From TrEMBL:
The chain crosses the membrane at residues 533-553. The keyword Amino-acid biosynthesis does not apply. Keywords: Membrane, Transmembrane, Transmembrane helix. Residues 10-58 form the F-box domain. Coiled coil: none annotated. This is F-box domain-containing protein. It comes from Exidia glandulosa HHB12029. PROSITE patterns: FBOX. It holds the Pfam family F-box-like.
Length: 647
């Protein structure tokens, strides 16, 4: 008997325009995604396979096969390519080498190239990793004077010195963005740079031949953004070892960022004198001064709007800030960040002006009365960060004399023990400044408040938490850690799925000895916080006490933790496996008879840092912990990160 054929039943469907499909598909041109789209229907398959522009984004991973790469190159036709290559030098198979070779053979079509051998870096092989060369398959056309007619963006990232004898040497006349990390360039006067006059963005990290680089800067007349970073401190930036450095003008340079171990103040000022168009200046280094330093008369920073200065070591090694002040006084500063410096009252009044939109001060010595008087004149200030300030006088501004900054939306105050050994410990770090700082904040309009190193009393907690409850009905995320009887809280917005929203505008980060009162306040109808919690993260240390509190409080309120979707147990690196098991067991014993009311809980997550010791939790104990929550969801999933759940 013949097999009956399926009837060709007509479907009420309208084919979407090809242009619309192409625009949608182009939003994610990852080949596996495209292949999935092609399975939907014949129309989508035709669009995916016939539109060459969808196949121009080539992403090569260690798992990429030669067949996959060749298929994508064929479908892309002769269009320009954006190529990203991620590989591990110590784990290259023969096919992986062939994939690299075939990809690099397309150099005449490549518009954007990103080669990265660090993204999959494994710390377990760190000692070996730094001495492995990049394979010739990846470097051949980058070091043989090849002509790259389409190249506009080039990014090469490697561990320092792991590229062996490889040195960049190509001709790329249309290059506009160059980023080299750990990859040296062969002769900064080479033909590559002579033909790269249109380079606008140049970022260098862990470079060797900086002498040649500074001598060749005049070959970059279009340069707008320059970034120099040597986190390992291999050389002294702007040292007196630059005999060929001669003044010239970088008329188009608008941003200059550098992060170095040591920097000579005199040479740094001479370089700034060559950059009259700077808008954004960021400098982080131990600035050293050799004798008398004269500020170049040509130094001008009139267009500067963003200024970042972090002086490492003892800030007595140079008076860089004092030398820069005359030029900074003529600038149009709107954003200032100063770390590890000393400010005199006259410096404060000239730097901190009403034009400021953001101000961050850390490990700073200053007269706090003069500082607060200057800050409260900044009526446009949106962001304010004060960290570990040291009062050089006994004067302080009383809260009742402080003017509230109505435009302020983000504020941070930190008097935790400073990293800098040059600042003394104790109340002089700025604890006395806190009442005046609090008076600056425009509650309830301020969205983000971070206070660290201060034991907040209920007088401060009540207005801060009630303000969150009055703002909106958005879901919230709460992270809490209990150390003995001292609690650390982070409260912010959450996603609908029950995860912390790291782009949240609403942030309350604080610490207090009154953790029971804090939890009770969050459960009160005046704050409406408990009922809006979608995500709860508890550090394992005080888990038993905290979950018992949540159990008691959730049963007192009408809805309990009605919005809770996810509970995370956070296990820090310094906690032993035995302590984790004991804490979970104590939590189970404390809460079994008092389950936490959370009708919509669907996920429990055990999270441990991969840098800590191996962590093993019995599956039976994990199930017993989940049973501490009274959820309407029948099957609450148990997940783990760097934690083994054993039967």
């Amino acid at each position: 008997m013949a097999t009956p054929r399926l009837s060709a039943r007509p479907y009420n469907a309208t084919a979407l325009p090809c242009e619309l499909l192409l625009d949608v598909f182009a939003r994610d041109k990852d080949p596996p995604v495209l292949m999935t789209l092609a399975l939907v229907c014949h129309q989508w398959k035709d669009v995916v396979y016939n539109q060459r522009s969808l196949w121009t984004q080539v992403a090569i991973q260690p798992s990429t096969t030669l067949r996959q790469l060749r298929a994508q190159l064929t479908r892309s036709g002769d269009l320009e390519l954006d190529v990203e290559i991620i590989f591990v030098p110590w784990d290259l198979s023969e096919e992986s080498r062939q994939v690299l070779s075939v990809a690099m053979d397309q150099y005449e079509r490549i518009r954007c190239l990103n080669v990265d051998s660090l993204r999959l870096h494994d710390e377990d092989v760190d000692d070996m990793f730094g001495f492995l060369d990049w394979p010739e398959d990846a470097t051949e056309h980058l070091s043989d004077f090849s002509y790259w007619p389409c190249l506009r963006t080039l990014e090469l990232v490697a561990d320092k010195f792991d590229v062996g004898d490889f040195s960049l040497y190509i001709v790329a006349p249309d290059l506009s963005e160059l980023y080299l990390a750990g990859v040296p360039a062969m002769g900064w006067y080479g033909a590559f740079f002579a033909l790269a006059a249109d380079v606008r963005t140049l970022k260098l990290k862990n470079q060797i031949d900086l002498v040649g680089f500074f001598q060749s800067l005049r070959l970059f007349p279009s340069l707008q953004h320059l970034s120099l970073d040597d986190e390992d401190g291999a050389r002294v930036l702007f040292s007196q070892e630059l005999p060929g450095f001669r003044p010239f003008v970088l008329v188009n340079l608008v941003s200059f960022h550098f992060n170095w171990l040591d920097a000579d103040v005199g040479m740094f000022l001479k370089f700034l004198a060559c950059c009259p168009a700077l808008v954004d200046l960021s400098a982080s280094a131990v600035f050293k001064q050799h004798g008398q330093v004269d500020v170049p008369q040509s130094l001008q920073l009139r267009l500067l709007t963003k200024f970042f200065l972090r002086m490492g070591g003892r800030n007595t090694e140079s008076n860089l800030l004092e030398l820069l002040l005359p030029a900074l006084q003529t600038a149009r500063l709107q954003h200032i960040t100063l770390w590890s410096a000393t400010l005199e009252p006259t410096d404060i009044s000239s730097l901190i002006t009403p034009n400021l939109l953001s101000l961050e001060l850390g490990n700073l010595r200053c007269d706090m009365l003069a500082l607060l008087q200057a800050i409260q004149r900044c009526h446009r200030l949106v962001d304010l960060w004060l960290h570990n300030l040291y009062n050089t006088s006994t004067n302080i501004l009383a809260p009742e004399d402080t003017v509230t900054l109505l435009a302020l939306r983000k504020a941070s105050f930190d008097v935790s023990p400073p990293d800098s050994p040059t600042l003394p410990l104790g109340a002089s770090r700025g604890v006395a400044l806190f009442p005046a700082f609090w008076a600056l904040m425009p509650l309830p309009d301020i969205t983000s408040v971070t206070i660290e190193g201060i034991d907040l009393s209920m007088d401060y907690l009540m207005p801060m938490l009630r303000e969150v409850g009055s703002r909106s009905d958005d879901l919230l995320s709460l992270e809490v850690e209990l150390v003995e009887d001292y609690a650390f809280f982070t409260l912010c917005s959450a996603t609908a799925a029950g995860a912390r929203d790291y782009d949240s505008d609403i942030i309350r980060k604080f610490e207090t000895n009154a953790f029971l009162e804090s939890l009770a306040l969050m459960n009160h109808e005046s704050t409406n916080i408990f009922s809006r919690l979608a995500s709860l993260t508890v550090a394992i240390g005080g888990a038993a006490v905290l979950f018992l509190c949540f159990a008691l409080l959730s049963n007192r309120s009408a809805g309990g933790l009605a919005s809770l979707r996810c509970v995370t147990i956070w296990i820090p690196a310094n906690v032993t496996n035995e302590a984790v098991v004991a804490s979970l067991d104590a939590t189970v014993r404390a809460c079994t008879s008092r389950p936490i009311r959370c009708q919509h809980l669907n996920r429990v997550f055990f999270e441990h840092t991969k840098y800590g010791p191996d962590m093993v939790i019995p599956k039976q104990l994990a199930d017993a912990f989940v049973a501490c929550f009274k959820s309407d969801i029948q099957h609450v999933s148990i997940e783990s990160g760097c934690v083994d759940l054993i039967a």
